[in-house]
Write a structure and sequence with these properties.
With about 500 residues, the protein is mainly alpha-helical. It has three domains: about 1-210, Up-down Bundle (Growth Hormone, Chain: A), CATH 1.20.1250; about 215-265; about 270-500, Growth Hormone, Chain: A, CATH 1.20.1250.20. The chain is built from 17 helices and no strands. It has helices at about 10-45, 45-75, 75-95, 100-130, 130-160, 165-170, 175-185, 195-200, 215-230, 240-260, 275-305, 310-315, 320-340, 340-355, 365-395, 400-425, 440-465. The longest helix has about 35 residues, at about 10-45. It is globular, with a radius of gyration of 21 Å.
Length: about 500
């Protein structure tokens, strides 16, 4: 275990490089939505291609993020983090140079692989490098700066799309990586890989795996890929859709069987023996499916129907992220005092109300009268929801499995968003060219928001019926400030128990 102090020059370099690395992946999960209409116009892509532009990234990220953390434990966290940064930058360059939608989608899938390597690695480096007395503050700064990056993302993305063009949304990652990777190599100490089992446990690294569950990771990614393909291409009604749907279900069953039988699985199924953990993950699936569908469609609605520019649409969505960044820590403190049940229930219902208010956002919508009230209600609901969700996930398992619990919950949230982006246009009756017709898209958007609101009401019901008061001695989240709207904050293994 390293004893780097946060106030030292090395500590500041470590914080800088981990923030830069995680921000690249976080920004790409938010800014691309704003660029979708211009991408579709430039590459002559239909709605299915735009869905794949979002989902190809989420697919590999959600399917491989648990494996990415294990690779760092085995081969060295700094090494895997740097590989992830370089991989992500190379894939971003390919995205920026893509001549057609097919190449862009393939490059986005490669981006997700890089994101799965660097996202858990950035937090693991902080926890393995800093002195225990500084670790909590370092993680807080890391999550806070990440939230600022998430807030700036849609604004920056809109400015780039309206200015130099949508390709710069991806090309901007290249200079960031050229700054991030050398700093990591020069200033970040290596951890994992050659460390002993005892030192890993002491540093909060958790269990050291004797081997990788590559088969489990492959089956997880394939199941998501098959189901996503079947949902996006279901309009075709072809035999291939039926075959992939059946293959998706079969692969998901195979994943469960493999994880149950392997001695060292990627996702130990016995973690779901905790009823609280299972319940809060069901809530996660409901609410993050709604969030994923909303942020995919809202950016399109504002541009296609309401006539906003890309910059205008990106700026319009800022209130939700800003509210989360400013008040999520206070929301977590409130949930500590009164328990998570009420915040999770009320937060989900507020989010549902916000999405129903979005039904007023149509042609020539007024930002102050129509868009802003909906986003403020949605943002307040997310403030009340996200921090207690993370706390409940961590509190529902033993302290030694906190990192695993957080990783499973994070993957579940991303998978829920992935499935929502694939399924919502189908459920709402959006045709392949719907985003080129303001009237058709507006009608389908209204149906989609109603479905999203229903998912949130379902999540509220599950939370109210199943979530109980946190035990007096449990793990407290280190990521107190949260600005991402696409997934809960990723928590690592704590070095010691913290009292709520």
């Amino acid at each position: 275990m390293s004893d780097v102090r946060l106030s030292s020059p090395q500590g500041k370099w470590i914080l800088l490089t981990t923030v830069l690395g995680s921000s690249m992946a976080l920004l790409d999960s938010t800014v691309v939505n704003v660029a979708l209409p211009r991408i579709g116009e430039d590459l002559d892509a239909d709605l299915a291609a735009l869905q794949w532009t979002v989902n190809a990234y989420m697919l590999t990220l959600a399917g491989l993020i648990l494996l990415g953390g294990s690779l760092g434990d085995r081969y060295g966290r700094r090494k895997i983090f740097v590989v992830g940064v370089v991989w992500f930058a190379a894939a971003s360059l390919l995205c920026g140079l893509a001549p057609n939608a097919g190449v862009l989608i393939a490059a986005r899938a490669l981006q997700g692989v890089g994101g799965a390597l660097l996202t858990p690695g950035s937090l693991a480096l902080i926890q393995a490098s800093f002195h225990p007395d500084d670790r909590g503050r370092a993680v807080g700064l890391w999550s806070g700066f990440g939230g600022i990056g998430a807030a700036v993302g849609p604004f920056l993305g809109g400015w780039l799309v309206d200015g130099p063009g949508w390709r710069w949304v991806f090309l901007l990652n290249v200079p960031v990586a050229l700054l991030c990777a050398p700093i990591a190599v020069r200033h970040v100490p290596e951890s994992g890989g050659g460390t002993s089992r005892s030192s890993e446990a002491e540093s909060g690294g958790g269990q050291v795996h004797s081997r990788f569950d590559v088969l489990g990771a492959v089956l997880c990614a394939l199941a998501l890929a098959f189901v996503t393909y079947a949902l996006i291409e279901a309009r075709q009604g072809s035999l291939a859709v039926v075959v992939t749907a059946v293959a998706g279900v079969a692969t998901a069953v195979a994943f469960v069987v493999v994880e149950k039988r392997r001695p060292d699985p990627m996702m130990p199924l016995d973690i779901f023996a905790s009823k609280q953990f299972t319940a809060v993950n069901l809530v996660t699936l409901c609410v993050y499916a709604a969030f994923g569908g909303f942020f995919f469609l809202a950016a399109l609605q504002l541009q296609v129907v309401s006539g906003y520019t890309a910059l205008g649409a990106g700026t319009a969505l800022l209130p939700t992220t800003a509210l989360m960044l400013l008040f999520s820590a206070r929301s977590g403190a409130l949930a500590d005092r009164i328990g998570p049940r009420i915040p999770l229930t009320v937060g989900s219902l507020l989010c549902a109300a916000g999405m129903l208010l979005m039904l007023r956002v149509g042609e020539d919508a007024s930002y102050v009268a129509d868009v802003l009230p909906a986003l403020l209600v949605l943002g307040l609901g997310m403030v009340g929801l996200v921090a207690p969700l993370t706390a409940t996930v961590l509190a529902s398992v033993d302290v030694g499995r906190a990192g695993l619990a957080s990783g499973v919950n994070n993957a579940a949230a991303r998978a829920a968003g992935l499935i929502a982006v694939a399924a919502l246009p189908l459920i709402a009756g959006m045709g392949e060219e719907a985003y080129r017709s303001p009237g058709a898209f507006d009608d389908a958007f209204g149906r989609a928001m109603t479905v999203c609101a229903g998912l949130l009401v379902l999540g509220a019901g599950v939370a109210f019926a199943t979530v109980r008061t946190l035990p007096p001695d449990c793990v407290r989240p280190e990521c107190l400030h949260h600005g991402s709207v696409m997934a809960p904050p990723l928590e690592g293994q704590p070095a010691r128990k913290r009292l709520v």
